[in-house]
Amino acid sequence: MKKHLSLFMFLLIAGTALAQSPEAKLKELKIELFTPPAPMANYVRAVRTGNLIYLAGHGPTRADGTNIQGKVGRDLTVEQGYDAAKQTGIALLSTLKSEIGDLSKVKRIVKVLGMVNCTEDFKDQPKVINGFSDLMVAVFGEKGKHARSAVGMYALPSNIAVEIEIIVEVE
Amino acid sequence: MKKHLSLFMFLLIAGTALAQSPEAKLKELKIELFTPPAPMANYVRAVRTGNLIYLAGHGPTRADGTNIQGKVGRDLTVEQGYDAAKQTGIALLSTLKSEIGDLSKVKRIVKVLGMVNCTEDFKDQPKVINGFSDLMVAVFGEKGKHARSAVGMYALPSNIAVEIEIIVEVE
Amino acid sequence: MKKHLSLFMFLLIAGTALAQSPEAKLKELKIELFTPPAPMANYVRAVRTGNLIYLAGHGPTRADGTNIQGKVGRDLTVEQGYDAAKQTGIALLSTLKSEIGDLSKVKRIVKVLGMVNCTEDFKDQPKVINGFSDLMVAVFGEKGKHARSAVGMYALPSNIAVEIEIIVEVE
Fold first, then answer.
1. Model confidence over B25-61: pLDDT tens digits?
2. Is the pLDDT of residue C6 over 70?
3. What percentage of chain A exceeds 70 in pLDDT?
4. Which of A138-148 are b and which e, b meaning 16 or more Cβ less than 10 Å from the residue's Cβ?
5. With contacts defined as CB-CB under 8 Å, which chain C residues touch A51?
6. Taking CA atoms, which of B60, B64, C34, C70 is between 20 and 30 Å from B79?
7. What is the reported pTM?
8. A 121-150: CB under 8 A from C
9. Which residues in chain B have their CB less than 8 angstroms from residue C164's CB?
10. Can you tell me the distance from the alpha carbon of C107 to that of C23, in angstroms, rounded to the nearest whole number?
11. Shortest alpha-carbon distance between residue B86 and chain A (Å)
12. What confidence score (pLDDT) does residue A10 get?
């Protein structure tokens, strides 16, 4: 009987973990979303058409409004670039949450264009953009797996280290 | 009675301004659309799927077929880059009108990728692409507000100053 | 009577050619698709939403898993760049076939972003990406004609010569 109860408890806990909301997962990862700053120019952070939301290119903006800046391969290591891509993911999720209210409405992270501010001989853009992709899979599981391009840019606004734009399917 | 008439005239004029068609607005801005030149290669200027139109990357092509060329930050100032982005917007609207006939069918400018041919230390890509974004908002009002990325490119075809691709939702 | 038979045979053959499947066309072009390698990072090769398939950025990967590398304008000629773009198209079709099983389901190649790893003074990105576009039109006919951007990149992953991402509409 005790054995059956243990199994029952295990299944209950496992089920709860599987059903964990993106917001709960973010809390577990000790990630706090923030109020996204207003766009720097005459555009908006996100536009919805049908059940797709197109998010504007975001940079590695911190909650205090500052950005991670510099070129990967010269000013930043691959690891620092990874962290910048993760921070860009946090900024994108902040905008997404402010748009749809509840991240559980996300059906799929569909498409990602990850742009790395880097040197000409830098070849590890995928390792940098993994900072974003790993966060999406950690927060959304299978729904977080996306089609992606990761490429090297000559220059980005305000010398930010990474800029990422995404398309999200919602319910 | 005269007062009431003035108020009536004011409301009539205000209402007309609000209901102004994109074509009328373009005329007011003294902007003339033109017949877009054929693509330089084996592709088309626009493809529609459902109610979305994907426009090919356009450059700052003038009505006579010439382009604004050069790198912003070296050959062109930010203001000249702004003008190039505006001209690119005129080229895109020319293609869009040739596709849908009537710009009043535009429901939303959804997504914009603005690419600036610039120097490595150039940081004001958003100020350049504003030349495009300001035109869209001037012509379409709220419907013209889009999600956008503005980034710096190493090289563009024929050394054009700006290349922009957009997604438009139509009725 | 013989004349009528010839005409009949001609129409039969012409009809067959028009109805030729993309797979038959690839065979005629002596192009073999291959099993696409697993992505280098935490993402997937393609995501479908509605009747659109977003394909991740692909490089000029050969069947043996090696890539065409180098910068066009320095390491590679325009012709070699064209071949790299064609090879990228073969890699994309390989992924597409593994996703939908039968390339006859393709309704339209909708949108293409073609990125060329090139020198700063290189101006012929369209001629390079034609290697991809010409293949699409050869395989799919009118359905293969797409909206496209062709731009010059500072750096691409593993120094690949070309990276292309596409959106495909399917039945």
1. 999 999 999 998 788 778 999 999 999 999 999 999 9
2. no
3. 89
4. bbbeebbbbbb
5. 49
6. B64
7. 0.91
8. 121-127, 129-130, 133-134, 137, 145-150
9. none
10. 15
11. 13
12. 55
